[in-house]
Design brief:
By secondary structure, the chain is an all-alpha fold. It has one domain. It has 4 helices and no strands. It is elongated. The relative contact order is 0.07.
């Protein structure tokens, strides 16, 4: 019974399948941190910020305004 227990298989066994090639995909949390840096709030704790709905909504609106203005500039330049 010892070799077939889950803990033993995790410690000694080999994983099945292959890992995907290339850079790991960004996590949702990484995207939030990048958005905070775009707006200039990179040092803030986003989890605490998200608990205050009014401040979180203001941040989301600010990020969306930054993205819209950047995309509009690219559209007008082409």
């Amino acid at each position: 019974m010892g070799k077939w227990r889950g803990i033993y298989r995790v410690l000694v066994g080999r994983p099945e399948g292959k890992r995907p090639l290339g850079r790991p995909r960004p996590r949702w949390e990484d995207n939030i941190k990048m958005d905070l840096q775009e707006v200039g709030c990179g040092g803030m704790d986003w989890i605490v910020l998200a608990q205050d709905t009014d401040r979180w909504q203001a941040l989301v609106n600010a990020v969306m305004n930054v993205r819209v203005s950047c995309n509009a500039g690219n559209f007008l330049a082409s």
